[in-house]
Amino acid sequence: MAMMLTGRKLRFSQSIAIQVLIPMLVIGLLALSSMLVSLLVTLNTQHDAEAINIAGSMRMQTYRIAVHLQQAVAGEADPKELIDTLAEEHRTFSEKLYQSSIARVAGERSDVSLKRAYQQVVTNWEQHMAPLLLSLSSAEQGRLASASREYLGHVEEHVGDIDRLVLSIQQNTEEKIELLGIYEGLSIFLSFLALVFIVMRTDQNLVRPLQDLVRAAEHTSVGDFSYRTYYEAVNEIGLLCSTFNDMSANLARHYRKLEDMVDEKTAQLQRSNQMLDFLYNTAQRLSEGVGGSHQPFGDILADLKALTGIPCISLCLANEANTDKYDLILPAGEERDCLIRDCKNCFMQPDSDHQTQGESSFAIEDSSDNFGFLYINTGPNLVLEPWQQRLIEAVVEHLAAAMALHYRDGLSRRVMLFEERSIIARELHDSLAQSLSYMKMQVARLVRLFDREAPEEQLREGLEDLQQGLNAAYRHLRELLTTFRLKLDAPSLYQALKATVDEFDRQSEQTEVKLEFHLGHCPLTPNEDIHVLQIIREAITNAFKHAGASCIELRCERGADNHAVFRVLDDGVGIATDPVKEHHYGLSTMRERAELLQGTLDIHPGEAGGTEVVLSFMPEVFS
Questions:
Q1: 319 CB contacts (<8 Å, ≥6 apart)?
Q2: What are φ and ψ of residue 237, in 5° steps?
């Protein structure tokens, strides 16, 4: 096994795992051999206890035979029963001697003394004890006494041989157990030495170095990369400690680089925050208005100069869009210096070939209009940094947007003024001018009647027509004044309509005016609000004056395709087929306003009687 780390080679024998594994293998082998020896001893001594017990029973059987013979000599036992008993005892003893565990123990063991003791018991049994028992089983009464005395004379010797056999078996077993104990003790001693070696090597090469690595990791975790591990060896932990030291050194270098980068990024973020704050203040100042005073521009230039550090910043704004006449604007608190002589001669248009090194111009323009330019001079040895370039471009865009908005707002006000004057002129032409023209014709008619000395009835009729025309013209003039002075004091169309309904509802106790507003979220422009309010006021006024209605209902709702629908219903006398009357221009004005809304105005009889006026148009927000 070869290991490579940080350019260093680690040999197989130098591995901590191998150094720990070898003693562990020794301990394992000792444990296995100890168990194997224990197993062998157990197997070898398996029948020893049984053999000792059987030997004891053989000794007891020898004494029992002697007891039977003594009883027979004393005449206390039946000779025939004695013969059967002795035959059974002979058979039993022979089985124990030749066929039991004693014969297996003596035959399988290599102990000479054990074999000799067993052979002595066998010889004594075969030469002395067994023949006597066989002879006693067929002897007469007289022969029984002498045979019994002869048997009893060999009993002690026979029992002694059996005792020596038991002692030999016991000694053989004890020798094996003693050998097992010695081996176990040696294994324990060797295992203890191996464990001590493992503990010492582990403490020296693993525990202490790991503790040192933990301390190094703790220092590293709190940002201290100066701590170094002490352990040096050609093994895994040594390589790990060396690598950790190299890693700490690299981390220290990277950490210093990151700190420098963080400081740089922090400075950039602070500058970005200052830029955002400056752009916000710039947008706020420009939103307050760019017409009239140049003070907001001076403050913006002063802040821009302080933020960018550019020594010379100036602004040239055109008096009107797309002209060459500029107003020179300097940063607030700065006087005209030597670099700025004349706005027209000093400031060149953007991308001019006459610009010198360090000078730059940024056009303040939108898609179609030019409002001037921003001039900067960084000096011959300085160039604009990217963030300065972006900031200046953003300021120029804000200035261009504000100037364009101011310029278009002026144009829009002019257009609105022209439209309003056109509306007033049309209203005067369609109403008051026609009434005056009619009265002029009546006056001319009266003059001709006076010249012809016409009857008084004709003169009186002409005067009455003239008076009616004058009253109609006066009444229409008041309506026009009311129309031109109408404004939306209420913050929303609903509140304006409710105020109108309440106003008409208070004018008469006989007529009830109700409002049902279900328009929902349908925002209208101020122009749309004015036209809707005028049409509804005119419709309610007509219902009051001409319908004789007891109930007038105004319904506001959403129609198909996001159309706004306004209905004025009354229960009056209804409306004629051709409702246009001479010297009355209310209905025509309502239709003109509906056309301005690009909608439709429908006036027809209601389903339940009366009249229904329906205004429907698409709000500008949905178109």
A1: 325, 326, 327
A2: -65, -40
* pLDDT at 548 (0 to 100): 79
pTM listed for this prediction:
0.43
Query: What is the secondary structure of 74-129 as a DSSP string?
Result: TT-S-HHHHHHHHHHHHHHHHHHHHHSHHHHHHHH---HHHHHHHHHHHHHIIIII
List, in sequence order, every beta strand (DSSP E) within 324-413.
326-329, 359-365, 370-377
- Spatial distance between the Cα atoms of 349 and 326, rounded to a whole number of angstroms: 12
Tell me 489's DSSP state: -
Residue type, 147: A
Alpha carbons 489 and 486: distance in angstroms, whole number: 9
**Residue that is written with structure tokens 């000694």 in the block:** 171
* Helix 112-124 with 141-202: angle, nearest 10 deg: 170
C-alpha distances in angstroms, 209 versus 218, 323, 521? Answer: 14, 83, 75
Instruction: Please give the residue that has the higher pLDDT: either 350 or 434.
Output: 434
Across 109-250, the runs of DSSP E, i.e. the strands, are none
Measured in Å, how far apart are the chain's first and last C-alpha atoms? 81
What would the mean pLDDT of 478-497 be, rounded to a whole number? 67
The residue-averaged pLDDT of 550-575 equals: 89
Residue 248 CA to residue 112 CA, distance in Å, equals 75
Scan for tokens 């916000």, then name that residue. Answer: 280
Residue 356, pLDDT above cutoff 60 = no
Per the DSSP assignment, residues forming a β-bridge with 361 are: 375
Note the Cα 404 to chain centre separation in Å: 44
Q: For residue 334, what are its two tokens?
A: 């700065």
User: Could you tell me the domains of the chain?
Assistant: 19-211 (1.20.1420), 273-403 (3.30.450.40), 488-622 (3.30.565.10)
Length of the chain: 623
Quote the tokens at residue 214. Answer: 């933990």
3-class secondary structure, 332: coil
What is the mean predicted confidence (pLDDT) over 490-496? 75
Per-residue H/E/C for 584-609:
CCHHHHHHHHHHHCCCEEEEEECCCC
| Nearest of 377, 385, 406 to residue 296 by alpha carbon | 406
pLDDT band at 5 (very low <50, low <70, confident <90, very high): very low
Which position has the token pair 């148009």? Answer: 617
Of 345, 350, 378, 352, the residue nearest 363 (C-alpha): 350
pLDDT value for 377: 86
* C-alpha–C-alpha distance, residues 317 and 434, integer Å: 50
Alpha-carbon gap, residue 202 to 183, rounded angstroms: 28
Q: Which of 331, 590, 558, 623 is nearest to 483 (CA)?
A: 590
Q: How far apart are CA 97 and CA 366, in angstroms?
A: 131
Q: Is 57 exposed, middle or buried (0-12, 13-18, 19+ CB in 10 A)?
A: middle
Return the pLDDT at 576: 66
pLDDT of residue 546: 79
- Average pLDDT of the residues of the chain: 78
Asked whether the predicted pLDDT for residue 420 surpasses 80, the reply is no
The contacts of residue 37 (CB under 8 Å, 6+ apart) are 180, 183, 184
Measured between alpha carbons, how far is residue 133 from residues 82, 152, 433 in Å?
Answer: 11, 11, 176
Query: Exposed/middle/buried for 314, CB within 10 Å: 0-12, 13-18, 19+?
Result: buried
pLDDT at position 345: 41
Contact (Cβ atoms closer than 8 angstroms) between residue 47 and residue 101: yes
Distance, in Å, from the CA atom of 443 to the CA atom of 463, rounded to the nearest integer, reads 9
